[in-house]
Amino acid sequence: MKPARVVICCGSGGVGKTTTSAALAIRFARSGKRVAVLTIDPARRLADSLSVGEIGNTAFPVPLPDLPPGASLHAMMLDSKRTFDDVVARFSGSPDARDRILRNHYYRFVSTRLAGAHEYMAMEKLFELSTSGDYDVVVLDTPPSRHALDFLSAPEKMANLMDEGVMRWLVLPASRGGWRMIEKGSEIMAKVLKSMLGDRTITDIAEFFSAFQSLWEGFRQRSLDVRELLRAPETRYLLVTTPAPGARAEALHFLDVLQRSRMPFGGFLINRCAVAPVHVGPPGFGPRPDDVPEAEWAALVRALAEVPERRRRLVAAQDHAIAELRAHAPGAAPIWRIPELDEEVHDLAGLARVSVHLPDPDALLATSV
Amino acid sequence: MSILDRRVVLVTGKGGVGKTTISALIALRAARAGKRVLLCETSGVTQVPPLFGVSGRGYEAVEVAPRLHTLSITSEAAIEDYIVMQLRFRRLYKMVFRNRVVGPFIDAVPGLHDLIQLGKVFDLERTRINGRPEWDLIVVDAPATGHGLTMLASPRAMMDLTVSGPFHDNAHDVAMLYEDPARTALLLVSLPEDMPLKETEELHERLGALRGLVRGLVLNEVHPSPVPDPARFQALYPALRAGADAAGREALDIAESGLLRTARQDAARVRLGALGPPVVDVPFLFRRDLGPAQLAALLPSVESL
Q: Is the ipTM of this complex over 0.90?
């Protein structure tokens, strides 16, 4: 079975990543693909814009009219905690081992608050969707996080955390009923950690790792598979940004991280681009109605003449920003501009309007930077 | 009491709303009022010095304007500082925390990174020179909404997790500073768009007991109205349109889309106003880049906070 192609939308918060991901998924479905779009978002934004009430941890069909035969669109909003629970259940040797983990105090922190857990679970779900056989393309709206590309290293971090060394170091003492050391110098470490974090934390953590022991091989292998998927030659990373001056530094930072991690970059999606006026020269109006004072009419006409000028300045600033991006991007990186719409995008119709400005999956695969 | 009379001002909001610009404006305003100000970035990406036309980055404070210094608190550098301070021995830190086996485990301690960034600000707040605070005001360009909230909650989360010990006690001290409305103020930045407004409303709601810290709501990137009097424009629209040439019709279309935006801005101001704290507008500048001259031009908009 051929796994689905993966398209990952990255970018900093506020650039319209969720909307763009959903519109991209619509574009792909319209070109005949079976598509799933996955987002992590406590604000239920995807649910809002796809005009569906509830998104759980399962893919539900989006009622998109006029799809070609065979095409489909599903959307899913990730429940990170539940995905983590599912992973624990899948790799647990026994129901008993599973329950020991799910009940552990530290597990609650790990599964909900651990830096990287959220990101890792998104990757896990992405893997699940792409290997399910139900889709040709899976679009990921990357999770909001402090370093928004944390997800790239999440599989490694998870694998490290589950590393045998940590397991041995933490688990053995706990399984013998105390905090016993097996490495030289580790006694001091244990003392330091214990005095800083308190007894209960250390006991909880040790118990957690002890219970996790039976899972770790499966878990570790899985995180390596996920890492493979992220680097697969058919996977594409798209950088969503806006022409605003502040967005450029962050976009270039993302690009740098992507390239250093050798992830296949697919191009820029530039959201909310102002469109330049077509007509040059001063706009003409009139004639002035007799009941309108001359001064008022003149003031209004002056203000209206300034309107296209201001738009031109905005477009010039934005062209400059896009040229800067292009100058820093690898040679053939394509740029897709999405014009700013008068109305905010709230529903399927709005997403469909955005989607016509986006590349289809074949165009995207053809770009390899 | 103006926010300038607090010890710490935290600026947060949805990603992309302009937190850094607003933080810089608040800091600049305080510095111009004669205060010694420290502006802390927390994202790991150094954005403030270029705003003031100064190069420089990193963990050491650099002066970017008279009386105004800035530094970037990365959690890695701050963690080392913080733990060394608790342990008192840098060698012990290296042995324990830089250990290949223990490293990931320390990274996994929930909330540690957030707490330590806040803890660093807490330490800076306490720094005295000849009995006088080194900084009159510390402005923190905090992480985006969701994470910002986690960060604010991190001292309590650490206290719950540890129950006792030096981390617990330190987290308690840190919590005392950030929970005190006489010493700490919170500014929420938003844009006149639905999603950032929703996030601002949700954050305000989820702040719970900390809601009293919110001293202002900033509506950023406010565009000017394209016409002096929108109502008169609507009334005269048919006459303008009837005699317009192609360029005129296009100008009218652009003006109309501008009016849709100003209407959204008005609605946004009403929504923010319903939350209680004062709302200020910061105008959008039709410029390529923000620099010292643009910051100075925007300064009057935050004067009332």
A: no
